[in-house]
Amino acid sequence: MRLRPSPKQTRTSKAATSPSRKPLAVAVTGGIGAGKSEALKAFARHGAAVISSDEIVHELLRSDPEVQGALRERWGESLLGPDGAVDREAVARIVFADRRELQWLEALLHPRVVTIYLRWREKLAELPDPPAVCVTEVPLLYEVGGEERFDAVVVVTASPEVRISRQFRPMQDREQRLLSDEDKLARADFSFVNEGSLEELDAFVADVVGRLSSEAR
C-alpha cells in the first residue's frame, strides 16, 4: 500500500480554510484497469459522496437527445439497438478503431460531463449538512487539464501485467494517448499501487478520507 501526500497538498489547505461549506472536491484517476471504480466504491463506503464520469457518459448515451442526434448524424441509424437506444458496444468498436472518431466523441461528451459533475457538486454544497468530501472518477483527468477543478487528486495505478489481466478489451491502442503512470504519480496528491487485496485498497481510502475530512473541519 502506498499513501503519499505531495507538496501540492497546499491546494487542499486553501480549500479547507474557505468559509464555504462546499465539500472538498477529490478526483480519482489512473490507468485502464488500475481499479478506479473499486476505489470510488471504497470512498462511498467511507462516507464520501461519489460520482463516476463513465456513468455520466453512459447516461448521456442513454438519454440525452442532443448527444444521440449527433451520434446518429455522424455514424448512422445502425448505431441504435433494438430498443432504440445507442448501442455502446457499437460506439466502442468505432472509436477504438479510429483515433479521430474517439477525439470527436470526447469533444462532444467532455463539456457535458464536466457540467454535470460541477452541478452535482453545487447541489451537494446546498444540502443542510453537506458531506466533507465528494469524489469524482475522471479517467482522463490530466490529459484534459481537469485537475484544476479539484482540491486533491488520487492516482490509482498497477503494473501493466495486472491491469491487462483485469481488462477484456485490448488496452494498447487506448493507452498510447494517455500520460504515463510515472507522470500521473508525480502530479498526484495521494497515490496507491493497487496490486493487493480490496481490503488494502479500502484501508488506503479510509486513510485519505480521514485526512481530508480533518482538513475540511
Description of the structure:
Helix content is 51%, strand content 12%. The chain is α/β, with parallel strands linked by helices and 217 residues long. The protein has a single domain, classed as 3-Layer(aba) Sandwich (Rossmann fold), CATH 3.40.50. The longest helix is centred in the middle third of the chain and has 27 residues, at 99-125. The protein is globular, with a radius of gyration of 18 Å.
What are the salient characteristics of this protein?
single chain, 217 residues, 5 strands, disordered N terminus, Rossmann fold, alpha/beta
Short account of what is shown:
The chain is of the alpha/beta class.
Query: What portion of residues belong to β-strands?
Result: 5-15%
End-to-end separation: 27 Å
Radius of gyration: 18 Å
Q: Which parts are unreliable, with pLDDT below 50 for 5 consecutive residues or more? A: 1-19
Number of strands: 5
Number of helices in the DSSP assignment: 10
What does the average pLDDT come to?
85
CATH superfamily name?
P-loop containing nucleotide triphosphate hydrolases
Largest sheet: 5 strands, parallel
CATH architecture: 3-Layer(aba) Sandwich
Spatial arrangement of strands, main beta sheet = 2-3-1-4-5
CATH topology: Rossmann fold
| Number of structurally distinct domains | 1
* Helix and strand composition category: alpha/beta
